[in-house]
UniProtKB/TrEMBL annotation:
Listed InterPro entries: Methyltransf_25, SAM-dependent_MTases_sf
Keyword Flavoprotein: no
Alphabetic keyword roster: Methyltransferase, Transferase
GO annotation, biological process: methylation
Domain Methyltransferase: 46-129
Any one Gene Ontology molecular-function term assigned to this protein's record: methyltransferase activity
Protein's name according to its UniProt entry: Methyltransferase domain-containing protein
Lineage: Bacteria, Pseudomonadati, Pseudomonadota, Alphaproteobacteria, Sphingomonadales
Source organism (scientific name): Qipengyuania nanhaisediminis
């Protein structure tokens, strides 16, 4: 496991994309460090759900306590040079046997999934993952939070042709979703994603990382 700094992360990203050639991936480094902060033990095999380009899953495999990461998504936007295993799936049934993984990660994905689909997804994750689920996402407490997060999603996703449509969750929504999937939230953390004017406009409390433990 290597030092998880923005500069080291930039070196890894440069092997797969030039999108960070002119700016350090500070947000992504903070996100990965927040995952590390709630990470419990070493997990031999980790499932990454909604991997997008796969670059974060690649970083999880390199920088966090795991041997192997497998990433799945409903569309193939993966960078072709990645070392991780990646698959496209139907969004309903994860193509793995029961307890195939020791842990899972879902990074800035759940708010893009329609509300009515989320409980079934969590139960499907519980089927194939024997241990904790690490979730990095957003928390919206007011209507203004929803507006601000919509802007942040546009800034972050448009360069990668990612999804913009979203339905953000409150603290209560997250707790309810965990229970519906057979989990409890055992730890939460935030992070220093933005500073100065950006932190005033888009407070860091909008970001949250959680560890879901099986009940």
């Amino acid at each position: 496991m290597s030092d998880l700094s923005a500069s080291n992360l930039s070196e890894l990203f440069a092997q797969h994309t030039n999108l960070y050639s002119k700016r350090l991936p500070v947000y992504q480094a903070e996100m990965l460090n927040s995952l590390l902060g709630v990470w419990h033990d070493h997990h031999a095999r980790v499932l990454d759900i909604g991997g997008g380009t796969g670059i974060i899953a690649e970083a999880v495999q390199k920088f966090l306590p795991t041997d192997e990461v497998v990433s799945v998504d409903v569309v193939d936007r993966y960078f072709p040079t990645l070392s991780i295993e990646r698959q496209v799936y139907d969004g309903t049934h994860l193509p793995f046997p029961d307890n195939a993984f020791e842990a899972a990660t879902i990074n800035n994905v759940m708010h893009h999934i329609p509300r009515e689909v989320r409980p079934a997804l969590m139960r499907e994750i519980r089927r194939v993952v024997s241990g904790p689920v690490y979730v990095k996402d957003h928390v919206a407490c007011t209507w203004l939070d929803h507006k601000k997060l919509t802007v942040l999603d546009a800034i972050g996703n448009i360069p990668f042709k990612g999804q913009i449509e979203a339905w953000y969750l409150s603290e209560e929504d997250w707790s309810e979703l965990a229970t519906q999937g057979g989990y409890r939230i055992s730890e939460r953390s935030s992070g220093n994603y933005r500073s100065g004017l950006m932190a005033l406009l888009f407070p860091n409390r909008l970001e949250q990382t959680m560890r879901f433990e099986r009940q």
